[in-house]
Design brief:
The chain is an alpha+beta fold. The chain folds into two domains: 99 residues, Helix Hairpins (Orthogonal Bundle); 150 residues, Sandwich (Immunoglobulin-like), CATH 2.60.40.420. The protein has six helices and ten strands. A five-stranded mixed β-sheet has the order 3-2-1-5-8. A hairpin with a 4-residue loop joins strand 2 and strand 3. Helix 2 packs antiparallel against helix 3. It is elongated, with a radius of gyration of 29 Å.
Amino acid sequence: MMIRARLSTLALLATAACVSLAAHAKSGWAELNMTPGVTEMSRNIYGLHMLIFWVCVIIAVVVFGVMIYSLVKFRKSKGAIPDVTLLHNTKVEIIWTAVPVIILVAMAVPAARTLVAIEDTSKTELTIKVTGFQWGWQYDYLDDGVAFYSHLDHASNAARQLGSNIDPNTVDNYLLNVDYPLVVPVGTKVRLLITGADVIHAWWVPAFGVKKDAIPGFVNEAWFKVDVDKPGLYRGQCAELCGRDHGFMPIVVDVRSKEGYAAWLKATAAQENQASAPTPTPGDAAAAPSAP
């Protein structure tokens, strides 16, 4: 009875350990793996990624399974004798040539379809020029006359300074926040014209499935369309080593409702027009003709 009780206890402990390890592995995998994102394209990319991943897993299981079986079954200790005679088998050669070709074609078709969709910038509703520079981003709303710069926010910039004595853990979204985010509406196909002002940068927002290089003298195109029910803040970073402060040029996209975006655009355009208007001097006021 004592042995049986101990075995039961060990079985329970082993089961609990397996459950804990499985939960930890799932959590760790979720942090390492791609995410479905908040756009249809990002979900298509995620689905393609998982399809190729599981194809590779199945191939690995088959190949290594045959290898391990052969090593165990035909080991020298069991009296296996190597056959130095090499035989030609046309059927086997056809099979191991045809099967990989079929697998590659089966993977190439959805991959090509996804790549074509990624480059399809037709029927866009909003065009924004994105210029990367050391170290920040410039956004130009080409059809609306709004432009601004986006840098690392003041709190993160202060905490990163040597000798600041500021604990980075006390700063919300440390190194992932900006002073002026890119603002776009939900349910709108946004076209990005991406270039660089000095060296090569890369505009990368994982939740959108978008990563494009910003190359000086060259314009790359990208697009995204955030789901109507997914407004909020989405963060990214420069994904190309671009110099000393490469790690300090994050990207924040503020996705708003169409009404909220329209109100923001109107207010921002009014502020920029007011800031760019020349200030009249007292002499100009005196020289101006009086109204009849």
